[in-house]
Design goal:
Length: about 375
């Protein structure tokens, strides 16, 4: 029996690699002759860097940069197995969990660190970049990142504005001629499954702002400030990009990268291509995938639905094993053979996350036991 194990991370508790290893161990313990293709997945959010580096046998390099609150942080960039492509992850530079709950306000956070890390990698000789945009604490339209790369943003007094979200309210002049020349030689691919435009009711501020600390009563004013900021840049450069799908990724960081001629691709697809997941599905009997919580939103391009789509193309049935099943999970049954939650009895989120490893191992063992029975029944049928 061949089983492809391709989970996303259980955010806040287990990485995709950890999840995959736990499921793989359960399968091998229950089905000694099983062939497991273990392929950790991601969609451009937390853990994408680790997954890509692992899948391609690349390397990770620690660097010091600016965090979401412009404090010094130790972060990293990865280099893929090809030895020339850098991976950076906004979640590891200006991620939401890096900001204390009582300080979460995107007016005070910055993407400056992303630009700084890119320059460090570029000065180390790299020119190819995969930028992972999920999990940010920011909503600055990429202003901080662009400033780190040399772009000037001036207020009404011709003074450089601080590299913070609140500065989009005050920008009066833009100067891209000061962009570091090395960036003209760099090529950026954005890993993101967010297709939101920059502004409007479906844009960065309205859709993702509240979870980052934007108050409901401030959404319209913030969105209008973002529109003025982006329009000023577009007029300066003679282009129109803020309505492009993905411009609203990471609080408008997607828009900033589009200004640098980046192309936006599905994060799940980038990982699947790098790991050769489609070919691994060939001749598989089952696929197992999962994420921290599965609900109706899972079908909107998240890792499990992408894995299930590839499996269906290969006529392979997919099992969903997630931390929990949320609102509208019933919609998932048309895409998965079965849907499983690791929780047992009434549990708080804290309890579930604290015991995620044990809970996952137990439910993976249950699934492995059922697959063992299927395997043995198939063997008996062949004998008959």
């Amino acid at each position: 029996m061949k089983i492809v194990v391709a989970p996303d991370s259980f955010k806040g508790s287990l990485t995709a690699l950890q999840v995959g290893n736990i499921i793989q161990e359960a399968l091998k313990n229950e089905i000694p002759d099983v062939q497991v293709e273990m392929t950790p997945m991601a969609d451009g959010g937390e853990g994408t860097l680790e997954t890509l580096v692992y899948a391609t046998k690349g390397k990770r390099f620690q660097v010091t940069s600016s965090g979401p609150l412009m404090e010094h942080v130790t972060t990293e960039y990865g280099v893929l197995g090809d030895g020339k492509t850098v991976v950076t992850e906004i979640a590891a530079i200006s991620g939401l969990p890096m900001v204390p709950v009582n300080k979460r306000n995107p007016l005070n956070t910055s993407t400056y660190g992303m630009g700084d890390v890119i320059l460090k990698a570029a000065n180390d000789g790299y020119r190819e970049f995969i930028i992972c945009l999920g999990g940010s604490s920011t909503n600055d339209g990429g202003l901080g990142m662009l400033q780190a790369l040399g772009v000037q943003f001036l207020d009404g007094n011709n003074k450089e504005v601080p590299p913070l979200g609140e500065s989009i309210y005050n920008v009066e002049k833009v100067n891209f001629t000061t962009l570091d020349p090395i960036i003209h030689d760099c090529r950026f691919t954005i890993a993101s499954d967010v297709d939101s435009p920059l502004c409007g009711k479906n844009g960065a501020t309205y859709i993702f702002g509240p979870q980052k600390g934007v108050r409901e009563e401030d959404l319209e004013e913030y969105d209008q400030a973002m529109y003025r900021y982006a329009s000023l840049i577009e007029d300066h450069l003679g282009i129109n990009l803020q309505k492009n799908p993905g411009a609203g990724s990471a609080g408008g960081l997607g828009f900033a990268f589009l200004l640098l001629n980046a192309k936006i691709e599905s994060g799940s697809k980038i990982i699947a291509d790098a790991t050769n997941l489609k070919n691994k599905m060939k001749d598989a009997d089952f696929a197992i995938t999962g994420e921290g919580q599965s609900d109706y939103q899972t079908l909107f391009g998240k890792v499990p639905s992408f894995v299930a789509k590839l499996a269906k193309e290969a006529e392979v049935k997919t099992i969903l094993l997630s931390g929990s099943l949320g609102k509208g999970y019933e919609d998932l049954y048309g895409h998965f053979m079965s849907c499983h939650s690791i929780t047992v009895g009434p549990m708080t989120l804290v309890e579930c996350m604290k015991n995620a490893e044990t809970l996952l191992a137990n439910e993976a063992r249950n699934i492995a036991g059922l697959l063992k029975e299927i395997s043995e029944e198939r063997a008996r049928q062949k004998v008959l």
